[in-house]
Amino acid sequence: CRFYLHPDLSEDLVGTHPPGAHSLVAVSVGYFLEDFVDMLCNQKLHQSWELLFHHSVVIVCFGIAVLLHQYVGFALVALLVEINSIFLHLRQILLMANLVHTTCYRLNSVINLGTYVVFRIATLAWMTRWLFLNRENVPPATYAVGTVGMAIMTPMNVILFYRLLRSDFFK
């Protein structure tokens, strides 16, 4: 929708962003910080280290966008990944409620997998492609942070996808 309403965003993810986008990314940094601290305080490290690592990468990357007022468009694209989080969290709630053998869980599993492919895998692939194609327009330090971020997030998401497939479809 943002790309439709602000077509210049598809041309420039570095310096262009629609009204409110900077605030959205800043609030997202706050959310990831709060969730990070909550996990540190309330979960065992061996249970949450992957999410803590994920949150660290997002906080650094989004923090750069917020502080520099650049790459906010790129961060907006990255936030598409969080659409799938709705179904990942619902899956967790259904698991905790012991509702694994219900139609609701099964339906959520299918939607979760579909949104995972569209909003995580495809979005991360697009972001990686964009970063590679625009490497000459991105300062080396920022390019390095983006490349490392994508190099961390992509395998993490592929592994999680495999775990979801194995757990929900190949028992």
Description:
Keywords: Membrane, Transmembrane, Transmembrane helix. It is found in: Membrane. Its main location: membrane. It is a multi-pass membrane protein. The chain is built from eight helices and no strands. The protein has one domain (21-169). Helix 3 (21-42) packs across helix 5, helix 4 (45-68) runs antiparallel to helix 8 and helix 6 (81-96) runs antiparallel to helix 7 (103-133). The model has no long low-confidence stretch (mean pLDDT 90). The termini are far apart. The protein has 171 residues and is mainly α. Helices cover 81% and strands 0% of the residues.
Mean pLDDT: 90
Give the distance, in angstroms, between the N- and C-terminal Cα atoms: 38 Å
Sheet/helix structural class: mainly alpha
The SSE string, one letter per element, is HHHHHHHH
For the secondary structure, the number of strands is: 0
Output the number of helix runs. 8
How much is the radius of gyration in Å? 17 Å
Structural domains: how many: 1
Task: Report the uncertain regions.
Answer: none
Instruction: Tell me the overall shape.
Output: globular
Helix share, percent: over 70%
What does the main sheet amount to? none
What fraction of residues sit in β-strands? under 5%
List the SSEs and their pairings.
Layout: H1 2-5, H2 8-11, H3 21-42, H4 45-68, H5 72-79, H6 81-96, H7 103-133, H8 140-168
Pfam families: TRAM_LAG1_CLN8 (PF03798)
Subcellular location: Membrane
Domain TLC: 1-171
